[in-house]
Amino acid sequence: xxxxxxxTSSEDAEGPRADATAGDTPNVLEALQVYRAAEAxxxxxxxxxxxLGESDILALRFILDAHALGRVTAPKDITEYLGxxxxxxxxxxxRLERGGFVxxxxxxxxxxxxxxxxxxxxxxxxxxxLAVANAxxxxxxxxxxxxxxxxxxxxxxxxRETVDRIGHRTKG
Length: 172
Prior knowledge:
CATH architecture: Orthogonal Bundle
CATH topology: Arc Repressor Mutant, subunit A
Mean pLDDT: 81
Largest sheet: 2 strands, antiparallel
Distance between the termini: 32 Å
Strand content: 5-15%
CATH class: Mainly Alpha
Number of helices: 6
Helix content: 55-70%
Strand order of the largest sheet: 1-2
């Protein structure tokens, strides 16, 4: 698999062509890498606007999403999600706490445990900024036919499952 980040014969300035002919099929993995790079750049820009790093943004998005679903987030959840050490998670949470984005408090279930909750400011400040980004990305999906949406969704679910398994030891 080749990925140089530059324009190749099967790409235009926007990335790999989706309309390639049978003799010039699009490289799906390359297109996915180009998308991931663009998404990472968007997270860096968003984070810079909020005074946060990329890991901070990922963690905050994870905390906000869990909170919206009524789930409690523990520091160990963030450690596992980001694949970082517990010490790094502690430093990250300190940054988010000092920035006014999260609070750490004793768990309502087990007072010995800590839960991480987004502040009202985090939901108010980051919510609109991330909502605009999500809305713009959702607009791009409106061009898909229902059949194409099923194919893309299925593919992305398989890719997520695949990357989630990478680096995890199997038990047995």
